[in-house]
Design a protein that fits this description.
541 residues, seven-stranded antiparallel β-sheet, 27% helix, globular, 25 strands, alpha+beta, 3 domains, Jelly Rolls, Rossmann fold
């Protein structure tokens, strides 16, 4: 065992080497060699946003900076001459793509749209917003702007943000009860003294010029962020909520004679997408039309450029030459979006459907369990997880155990349903764990459409993920005695060859892990088909 004196000598040697490297790098870069400067702190700026009890956060009013300026209510200027909210034009609500991150005030697409339509365009978009916050933001600004048109602009790939109660910071969210929206206000984050906003190791290493230069170059967002960001999911259907919100926005706009447009934007990842837009975007487009909301979807335009003219496509985004990471829209890309919206504004808006498709259903089971006991007692040959009966019952109890300790992988068991047709399915079971494992339970058809129920058994917490064109998804969890939990998953699937997948998940939430005896027990597994009845709508809250 090394002597303490040797360990101390080694530590001193490492420290002196680090100090020498730091001083040498400062001298080479021309930075003050012996200055006790908080290099990281000099880059961290005071936040441009503040808490809002309705929408979570808003940009501060009357910000002034090179290329980024706001007026009252945190509305971004389109030009230096803007001094107040101008009524009677177009109101824009959206996320950072609409707000115009990485470009100057004049180069955002709302500013360029104003030049095209020759009427005021109010840019009330705020970075990080979900569709729920956008609708609430529109309702805040409507009495001031009294617009002729309202444009809600969202990234097509972040529609699911409506199923978060915290998106970095606490945000408002909606749940659905009886087919209607129920509002949940954001929790005000605690006041944190500025000196405690950063982790201790950031405050310490921030005084090292070499560390600041390296971290600022390769991981700037993580290095310069101050507060720990939290992302908290809620078990709701994102498309259902977003569609209900579009209907609500149309109801806000119709009495004042304003039309509503939904703009779907896309990041640089659209270049690697297939020939079809994301399933969530396609579903939202369908319900928007029924709600009387005009859709401007940039997918076809951008995807065509990505496939046929990659250089032009790259120029539509902020990116460095040779960089594989695409940022927000460039001034040129924003001009493209503004042009698509200008064209849409020249067209007649859609007429709301007299009998719109129900967005939420009550599923009534048919009493037929499509998972036979013989299937459970004779499961497929185990590859990544075993399924074993461990108690005869009643009720019979089964164990799912992860296999393969020599490499990382997924650990799941698939069970075919019989009979198996397109339509609604209800899964119920009881589950418990004696290890650190959690559980995913999926209902999925042969085309990989359906729902994943994600269950954290130790926290009595349920979340869900849509697969493809799965619809009307719901999940639930409730604690029972002796560590057991009631869990349920419902989904409407469009295809046949429907099956259930029971998958073990590591305690840290990873689906891929090395087996170390993780196991989950379950009993009373039932999967029923059923009939659909539209949920009875009540007043939105």
């Amino acid at each position: 065992m090394p002597k303490l004196s040797n360990l101390l000598a080694f530590a001193v040697s490492v420290l002196l080497s680090a100090i020498g490297l730091e001083l040498g790098f400062r001298a080479y870069e021309g930075a003050p060699v012996f200055a006790l400067t908080d290099w990281r702190g000099s880059h961290v700026t005071v936040s441009a946003s503040m808490f809002d009890p309705m929408v979570g956060w808003v940009q501060k009013s009357n910000l002034s900076g090179p290329g980024f300026n706001t007026i009252d209510y945190g509305i971004r200027k389109n030009a230096a001459a803007d001094t107040g909210v101008r009524a009677g034009g177009i109101l824009v609500v959206g996320d950072s793509f609409a707000a115009g991150s990485q470009v100057t005030d004049e180069d955002t697409w709302p500013a360029q749209l104003e030049e095209l339509v020759r009427q005021p365009v109010i840019n009330a978009a705020v970075g990080g917003y979900g569709v729920d916050q956008m609708v609430l933001r529109a309702e805040q600004i409507l009495p001031l702007a009294r617009p002729k048109a309202i444009i809600l602009s969202t990234l097509a790939t972040t529609i699911s943000e409506v199923t978060y109660s915290s998106w970095g910071e606490p945000k408002p969210y909606f749940t659905v009860a009886g087919g209607s929206l129920v509002f949940h206000a954001p929790q005000k984050p605690p006041e944190v003294p500025r000196r405690r906003r950063s982790a201790w190791w950031k405050r310490l290493l921030g005084h090292a010029y070499l560390v600041d230069q390296l971290m600022g170059r390769y991981v700037p967002n993580s290095w310069y962020s101050e507060l720990e960001q939290k992302f908290e999911l809620i078990p709701e259907d994102d498309v259902e909520i977003a569609c209900l919100l579009l209907r609500r926005l149309w109801s806000d706009a119709d009495p004042i004679g304003a039309r509503v447009l939904l703009v779907l934007e896309y990041g640089g990842s659209v270049r690697s997408a297939g020939d079809t837009r994301p399933a969530d975007a396609a579903m939202l487009t369908g319900c928007a039309g029924e709600a009387g909301v005009q859709v401007v979807d940039a997918f076809d335009t951008l995807h065509d450029l990505a496939v046929n003219d990659p250089d032009t496509f790259r120029s539509e985004y902020v990116s460095a030459p040779g960089d594989t990471v695409f940022g927000h829209m460039s001034p040129k890309g924003n001009r493209l979006i503004a042009g698509l919206i200008d064209k849409a504004l020249r067209e007649a808006p859609p007429v709301p459907a007299a009998n719109p498709t129900p967005l939420s259903y009550e599923i009534t089971g048919d009493g037929i369990n499509r998972v036979a006991e013989a299937t459970l007692d004779n499961p497929p040959t185990p590859v990544t997880a075993s399924l074993t009966r461990v108690a005869g019952g009643p009720p019979a109890e089964y164990e799912v155990t992860a296999l393969g300790s020599d490499h990382k992988g997924e650990h799941s068991v698939g069970l075919a349903l019989s009979p198996s047709t397109a339509g609604p399915y209800m899964l119920t079971m009881q589950a418990r764990t004696t290890s650190s494992a959690n559980l995913w339970v999926s209902i999925v058809d042969g085309g990989n459409n359906g729902t994943i129920g994600q269950f954290e058994l130790s926290r009595d917490r349920a979340m869900m993920t849509r697969l493809g064109n799965g619809r009307d998804q719901k999940v639930a969890i409730a604690p029972l005695a002796d560590g057991w939990h009631d869990i349920s998953v419902t989904s409407i699937v469009p295809g046949e060859e429907v099956h259930v997948v029971i998958q073990l998940i590591a305690s840290h939430g990873q689906a891929t892990f090395k087996s170390a005896g993780q196991q989950v027990f379950f009993r009373q597994l039932r999967v029923e088909g059923g009939s659909l009845e539209p949920a009875q709508s009540t007043a939105s809250q």
